[in-house]
Amino acid sequence: MAILVTGGLGYIGSHTVVELLNNNFEVVIVDDLSNSERFILKNIEEITGKKPVFYPFDLKRKELLTQVFDAHQIDGCINFAASKAVGESQIKPVDYYENNLFSLINILQEFKERGISNFIFSSSCTVYGQADQMPIDENTPLKLPESVYGKTKQMGEEILMDFAKAYHRKISLLRYFNPIGAHPSGIIGELPIGVPNNLVPYVMQTAAGIREKLNVWGDDYPTVDGTAVRDYIYVVDLAKAHVVALKKLMEDHSDVATIDIYNLGTGKGSSVLEVVKAFETANNVAVPYQICDRREGDITIAYANVDKAQKELNWKSETSLEEALRTVWQWQQYLNTRNA
Amino acid sequence: MAILVTGGLGYIGSHTVVELLNNNFEVVIVDDLSNSERFILKNIEEITGKKPVFYPFDLKRKELLTQVFDAHQIDGCINFAASKAVGESQIKPVDYYENNLFSLINILQEFKERGISNFIFSSSCTVYGQADQMPIDENTPLKLPESVYGKTKQMGEEILMDFAKAYHRKISLLRYFNPIGAHPSGIIGELPIGVPNNLVPYVMQTAAGIREKLNVWGDDYPTVDGTAVRDYIYVVDLAKAHVVALKKLMEDHSDVATIDIYNLGTGKGSSVLEVVKAFETANNVAVPYQICDRREGDITIAYANVDKAQKELNWKSETSLEEALRTVWQWQQYLNTRNA
């Protein structure tokens, strides 16, 4: 029995594949390499000493997906495959809806027809928008996300809940806060393709001299130091949450729908400047930055209440911000040697 | 230059094709015949004396859709093709999401790549849920619909608005209230496939003796006679609204996004028992009924404020409830002769 991991060579996907293999799951990866690279597969094998099955194709190709389900006894899926750049999603909405919805629905058709349960969906705290209260727990009202990316996540959640109810299946919607860091081995991490969209990869490249300066978008927010606050969760901790969420679904043999929803964060907010300073301290390196105007669409503050995941999954974040940022710098060194 | 009409042999689609042909549009129909029949095409030709192009395939087959766009100079689309049974959508959610979203997104990919504008979308008053105030105008806040069918309509609206904004295209979202009636020729109308889901086809079949009794779901609502109130719009009036909405988009040569949203109704609510009595009076026939318990998920009352369509499209409903119901009975007589 194998777990299908779509987008399994991507950032969170690759770290989760490592944890699944370490927990003796058989893993079948489908990844179209649109935002990942083949060497990640080799490095997963190096870290774990195990070989996941890998299929390089786009999940919109339903006939190829059907062949994967024919060839393997799939017992669950963790669906990471998705286009995920917020800014790009505004410029290319049709592609985002197509990529993110077709891939999900194609998999659900296979699940439906073959009676498979156990589906874990990569959702995001973006479904809460700027929440009225902090911290954000799972009962916080959802807001229509401003970005197309966020809407594809909210639609995905709706589709999956209807799937679970109609066919009595088991699903988890995992709402990630801000994943950061790389594997402690230093050989898998977040691949910087183009100009990074997220804070930590940009900090990393600035420290490495690839970018001249970090742009800090606004220092007049009502926060500790005026910069925006997020909840940065270490990617390996996040990956482990997928394994426990999956095990919970698989141990549930009832014949009713199960819809688990968990916020995955640390429970603690950090400002942009706190992250910059933590990076400098952790790695003894300078990160030049400049304050810019606020960026449209950015929210002020978001951090999670993580009690539910702790209580129901016995999971919590275990890695400090500084520790996580040390792995980022190790990863940059690895990328330097690869490029050398 | 031709207008693509998807679902053009369906209920509202076929009436709209007639109006388009009467207004000298070239029409290309794509319809998979899943909820329509070929004789409708013949009857459209009989009514109009014109021949639309017809392709019988499922819009999920992107490669066939591309061939249609290659073969014709498509200048706009009216997208009727969709699965539309509310109850069924709860039981088969994955099929509903697949049918209704893939077809829409496949067409938008063609529009995007070929620079085509002018897209008219069949939406529904279901996006308002049970509105807090009557009548419902276009600024009434949307609610997450309870049914999967309704969610596919709300998602379709979101996708189209993002499409229009990103690519500077022109779209209309037409929110139908409750379409009823048949063409005055009596040879196209709402095909009763299986047990009717909607009130008027059920009334028609009860009057015809096909159903024993009409079930009236609840007579203790806070309405004029205790039965639920809806806004019944004559299908030919509704079809004409599509033509004027399309002309408005096509006459707009600006280079910015246009997002038109119109409620299409009569502006007047009628209770279930008022419809039954109007049918009996109009057609001099008895409609036996029994009062049943309320049906879960039914809203109490919904009728439109139609000022916006009147002002901007110079369109309004022109046909009385009784007149509309007379065409229904004519259509039943036609179906009788076909079955004889």
UniProtKB/TrEMBL annotation, chains A, B:
Cofactors named for this entry: NAD(+)
GO-annotated molecular function: UDP-glucose 4-epimerase activity
Top-level class of the enzyme under EC nomenclature: isomerase
Top-rank taxon, per record: Bacteria
Pathway assigned to this chain's UniProt record: Carbohydrate metabolism; galactose metabolism
Gene Ontology biological process: galactose metabolic process
Alphabetic keyword roster: Carbohydrate metabolism, Isomerase, NAD
Catalytic activity: UDP-alpha-D-glucose = UDP-alpha-D-galactose
Cellular component, GO annotation: cytosol
Span of domain NAD(P)-binding: 4-326
Gene3D superfamilies tied to this protein: NAD(P)-binding Rossmann-like Domain (3.40.50.720), UDP-galactose 4-epimerase, domain 1 (3.90.25.10)
Listed EC numbers: 5.1.3.2
InterPro entries, A to Z: NAD(P)-bd_dom (IPR016040), NAD(P)-bd_dom_sf (IPR036291), UDP_G4E (IPR005886)
Keyword rRNA processing listed: no
Quaternary organization: Homodimer.
NCBIfam families, per database record: galE
Family in the record: Belongs to the NAD(P)-dependent epimerase/dehydratase family.
Protein name, per record: UDP-glucose 4-epimerase
Organism: Chryseobacterium arachidis
